[in-house]
Amino acid sequence: MLFLIIYLRILMNSTTEKIFVCGAGIAGMFSAYYLKKSNPNLDIVLIDKSDSVGGLLKSFQYENYGIFDVGIHTLYQTGIDQIDEVVLGVLEQEEWSELPGDIGGTYVNGILQTGSPYIDLRNIETNEKPIWLGELLEAAVVENDESDNALEYLVNHFGNSLATKVMAPILEKVFKTKASELNTMAVKLLPMNRIVAFDDLPMQDLMLSSKIRSRVAIPNQRNLKEEYKSNKKGFYPKKLGLGFYVKAFMDDFLKMGGHIWTNSQIAKINISSNEICSLNVIKNNEEFTVENVKGLCWGAGLPVLSWVLDPGFTKELNFDPPLKNAIVNVVTSKNVDRFKDLQYVYVLDGGYSIFRVAIYKNYCPNMDNELNKISLEILYLKDEEEGLEDKILQEMINIGIVDCKNDLSFFQLEKLTAGVPRPTQKNISSIRDIRNNISAKKINNLICVGSLAEDNLYFQSDILKDALKKLKHFANI
Ligand SMILES: Cc1cc2nc3c(=O)[nH]c(=O)nc-3n(C[C@H](O)[C@H](O)[C@H](O)COP(=O)(O)OP(=O)(O)OC[C@H]3O[C@@H](n4cnc5c(N)ncnc54)[C@H](O)[C@@H]3O)c2cc1C
Q1: Distance, CA 205 to ligand 1 centroid (Å)?
Q2: Is the CB–ligand 1 distance for residue 450 below 6 Å?
Q3: Ligand 1: distance of its center to the CA of 467 in Å?
């Protein structure tokens, strides 16, 4: 403790200019590392309010059942060396498994689709199908993707019948909001921008049209021709657990002379002549002021920043209640062969609280003694909390993960404090108001990175590319 106090005193009073990075998820970790590497003379302090770093890349460790991730993630190349060298350079090449692509499935209408994560229309019995397909092809010809809300996007993209009868009800189930009140971002969070509609043979010709390719998927993703595949490779550590990756990442940062403060948050941002000059930080419940602040890189979510900068403005904002996120980590005695090589399965049937199933062995083929590990990502509203575990068990039985409770060797529900956002028009519009309010303050040495720092920013590769752009500007201040 004494060492900590001495260390803080030295750092607080040092005349070396400091850049604070607030929030130690992937956005904050990358930003802190990049800034330190670009300018070793700067003091870079990465702070997080939780007791450990990593954000959504953390892992859980259980005494008898080992490691599970908070949400198992593939780390993709971005194609930008400055990012890939940092993010993938954390581990040696031989410590990564290169995954054979992004192989996903969907559970919809009581059917487990292993061919494609996109909804397979061929499984839906209706004599209206010729009309649906006619409208779909018409939508492809018109190609109007300018939409104000998720419903409009679906109608423009797939035609009216498919949009209103098949796709919108699924979106509404997952996000518990009418499709017309959802932002177009909702469609991007799910595999909803394509549909499987035709068999392999006709699809081979249809794939020649980019308008069809952007709406219609081939029935078996494994047969996608090389020319249509993403050229960005995906990796997962050979040693199970992104927590180890986070540790290696942050050990490198510390070795370069970076600082990490956990259990810490920023209580006040002091600004003079459009520049942040000092910060009031609360660390382990003690508040103190840090002078000589050269800049602040915010990666802890815009609403939190808004509360610190402008509580009066933030209080007036209108948000829909968030979706609660939980992860259920399970080990089953029933094998997971039913899922073949799928890394994940979206669960899109009405009334389900399971949103996605992750099958560990298909991310981490090298793990040999942990074959039946599965994580379930759960989305629910506060008033759905009662009886949630029983409901999840029943859903697992329906999907075929287990046949009965006795097939479960381990079942642990972990509530998350952050996760998949609820992309309603109201929420996205309030986040935009926050963004506009922050930028109207014209604070020269503040940048915002991470999830929702910009419209539609959610997936890791996009977050990293956005952060790099902002950091380049920031490194020169
Ligand atoms: C279950 C799940 C699965 C996902 N799967 C994928 C996927 O396969 N591919 C993909 O690209 N994306 C995926 N995502 C999305 C992706 O994980 C996130 O968008 C991304 O990790 C967000 O990174 P971040 O750094 O912005 O935020 P986070 O990882 O949430 O980090 C934010 C950090 O800020 C800290 N913090 C919060 N408030 C404060 C405060 N007041 N002061 C200080 N620190 C604070 C938090 O403790 C946290 O450490 C998934 C998300 C979830 C929930």
Answers
A1: 40
A2: yes
A3: 14
H or E stretch including 36? helix 26-38
Counting from 1 in the atom list of ligand 1, the atom nearest the Cα of 420 is 53
> What number is the average pLDDT over the span 352-356?
95
Q: Which one, of 309, 310, 299, lies nearest residue 452 by Cα? A: 299
Task: For 17-52, write each residue's pLDDT tens digit.
Answer: 899 999 999 999 999 999 999 999 999 999 999 999
Ligand 1 pocket residue status of 244, Cβ below 6 Å = no
Q: Which of 73, 304, 307, 379 to mutate to test the pocket of ligand 1 (most atoms within 8 A of CB)?
A: 73
**Pocket flag, ligand 1, residue 326 (CB < 6 Å):** no
CB 462 within 8 A of CB 453: no
Name every residue whose Cβ is closer than 8 Å to that of residue 194 and which is 6 or more positions away in sequence.
118, 214, 215, 216, 217
Q: Tell me which residue has its CA closest to atom 33 in ligand 1.
A: 23
CB burial of 294-326 (b: ≥16 within 10 Å; e: otherwise) equals bbbbbbbbbebbbebbbeeebeebeebebbbbb
CA-atom Rg of the chain in angstroms: 24
Q: Is the CB of 31 under 6 A from ligand 1?
A: no
Residues 239-280: tens digit of each pLDDT: 999 999 999 999 999 999 999 999 999 999 999 999 999 999
Main-chain dihedrals φ then ψ at residue 97, nearest 5 degrees? -100, 130
Please tell me the distance from the alpha carbon of residue 234 to that of residue 363, in angstroms, as a whole number.
Answer: 10
Task: Answer whether 418 contacts ligand 1 (Cβ < 6 A).
Answer: yes
Ligand 1 pocket residue status of 265, Cβ below 6 Å: yes
Q: In the chain, what are the domains?
A: 2-53+241-319+424-475 (3.50.50.60), 119-224 (no CATH), 323-416 (3.90.660.10)
Q: Ligand 1, from 20, 56, 261, 347: best to mutate by most atoms within 8 Å of Cβ?
A: 56
Residue 334 pLDDT exceeds 70:
yes
Of all residues in the chain, the percent with pLDDT exceeding 90 is 86
**Tens of pLDDT, residues 311-328:** 999 999 999 998 999 999
- pLDDT, tens digit (0-9, with 9 covering 90-100), for 61-108: 999 899 999 989 999 999 999 999 999 999 999 999 999 889 999 999
Q: Which atom of ligand 1 is nearest to the CA of 449?
A: 26
**Could you give the C-alpha distances from 408 to 330, 346, 396, 398, in angstroms and in order?**
7, 21, 10, 14
pLDDT at 13 over 80: no
473 falls in which pLDDT band (50, 70, 90)? Answer: confident
Residue 105, number of CB atoms within 10 A of its CB? 25
